[in-house]
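Encode chain A's predicted structure.
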Amino acid sequence: MGWVKDTFFGGAEKDAAKQQIAAGDRAMATQKEYYNQARNDIVSLFPQAYQGLQTSYQQAIDQIGAGKASASDIFRQAINQSNQIN
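Encoded structure for chain A:
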């Protein structure tokens, strides 16, 4: 009975398998495209975040140097800001 099944239904099963493989390939390509887009979006934010860090660092040094704040005040402020980011 196996040859009857292969003769009458084998082509349909093979076509269905090919369609499933093609759908899987399309899904993987779409997933890769979205992954790359998200990665690029995140990486594009790094220079902006780094600039903010540099600015904050310079402000802290200026405040300490001018006697307007102690290192512990700056540290406390940094902790509060990091908690807001999280």
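Residues 12-85 form one domain.
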